[in-house]
Amino acid sequence: MKVCFIPIDNRPVCYTLAKDICAIDGGIELFIPPREFLGGLDKVADIKKILKWLKRLPAVDSIILPLDTVIYGGLIPSRRGFETFEELKLRTEELKAILLEKQAKVYAFSSIMRISNNNYNEEEKLYWSEYGKKIFEYSYAIHKGLRVQNDIPIEILDDYLKTRRRNFDINKIYLEWQKEGIFNTLIYSKDDCAEFGLNVMEAESLESMGGKTKTGADEIPLALLSRAIQKNIKVYPVYTEPDFKNCVSNYEDVSIEKSVLSQLELGGFQIAESYNDADLILVVNNFIEKQGEHVMGWETKSFSEKFVPPEKPYAIADVRFANGADNSFVEQLLSRIDLNNFCGYAGWNTSANTLGSLLAGVKVKFKALQYNEESFKKLQIIRFLDDWAYQANVRGKIESPCCIKELMQPYEQRLSQIFGLDINAVYTYPWNRKFEVEITGI
């Protein structure tokens, strides 16, 4: 199978994770643009080079296409950029001509511009540092039909709303392409989404016009990769806290159960009616009432039962905490892990991020044409080192990006014993911030 995969940006969870997942099956030939073409925190992707690369690509079966990357230069530039609608529309026409020429199955997604409920402008326009929460409150009130009281300068509010309208109008173009049959799948992503807001209103409008929306963002290219891999796998979800599967995760607008079912549907899985009917058990370590988060200091009750691995192939979605693993659960898992049936672990960032990326690895591993066990073990070691060791433990012990090798070594040694591979990992910070670490040398 020949797959063209264009990442959202150059972060490891967007770029190297896709490569690590595909490496599990030697039957997948992956075409991915050079990393230097892609955008970063303060760098817009080189759109001309990406389009030229795509145009010159040999025939492939499928194209995984984040539209924000090739139209705006990335997810972050889609919120920050100052191009006019007319300039962006010309770019869409160039992309459309290339896709028509390729005649591959195109699995695409475009983001609905998020509204973060904070005053951090690291990924937004500069004025977000002062007016971010106020813009969120304005957006929330408009959707709820409440009386709007704000002191946002008119020129800032006008700029924000103009950018939203521009992106929404671009998104409507893709609906026309969908009608023309250009896309095999088109998804609109809802990133960092609350229950109410202008972004939610836009999602409802796109849905009324025939569009399909999903909560999440960074994991969606991987979910689309999963969808492109045609395998019939029946999955039965099992929740560690079944009485609380209707609770809503941080940064999402649907229950954890709906998020699970949505990610399974997008990834092209079947839902098994019972445990006995399933090919794979998806163990979801969900939260009680409110999802925790280590970095923000949001507590929740950790897993306190005895974990018994299923007697069937199983994968673990650890979503009790956002942005990091549940230490209690991981201790139980690692002490009882059954590598014969183990098909993957993830516990990073949002629940949707965890689920989508985990299921992509499951889809590639399950009945792989040319299974590479060492690549699978390397992928799992990276996920445990990142989601468990770093995000849930080491990250909170450091003030800023620094050498963490000594802090990580106890975790390396334990995982080396479990997976039977030597580990001498190298840790770097691709965006020069603590939020994401890149792990190489496995």
How would you describe the overall organization of this protein?
By secondary structure, this protein is of the alpha/beta class. The protein folds into two domains: 2-225, no CATH class; 231-396, Rossmann fold (3-Layer(aba) Sandwich), CATH 3.40.50. The protein has helices at 16-22, 47-56, 67-71, 75-80, 85-102, 128-144, 154-179, 198-208, 220-228, 256-266, 327-336, 351-365, 373-394, 405-419, and strands at 2-5, 29-31, 62-66, 105-112, 185-190, 213-215, 234-239, 270-271, 280-285, 292-293, 314-318, 321-322, 342-346, 426-428, 438-440. The strands form four sheets. The protein has a six-stranded parallel beta sheet with strand order 2-1-3-4-5-6, sandwiched between helices. Helix 13 packs antiparallel against helix 14 (405-419). It is globular. The mean pLDDT is 96.
Write the layout of secondary structure elements.
Blueprint: E1 2-5, H1 16-22, E2 29-31, H2 47-56, E3 62-66, H3 67-71, H4 75-80, H5 85-102, E4 105-112, H6 128-144, H7 154-179, E5 185-190, H8 198-208, E6 213-215, H9 220-228, E7 234-239, H10 256-266, E8 270-271, E9 280-285, E10 292-293, E11 314-318, E12 321-322, H11 327-336, E13 342-346, H12 351-365, H13 373-394, H14 405-419, E14 426-428, E15 438-440
Parallel strand pairs: 1-2, 1-3, 3-4, 4-5, 5-6, 7-8, 7-9, 9-11, 10-12, 11-13
Antiparallel strand pairs: 14-15
Helix pairs in contact: 5-7, 6-8, 9-12, 10-12, 13-14
Keywords:
alpha/beta; Rossmann fold; 2 domains; 442 residues
Structure, briefly:
The chain has 442 residues and is an alpha/beta fold. It contains 14 helices and 15 strands.
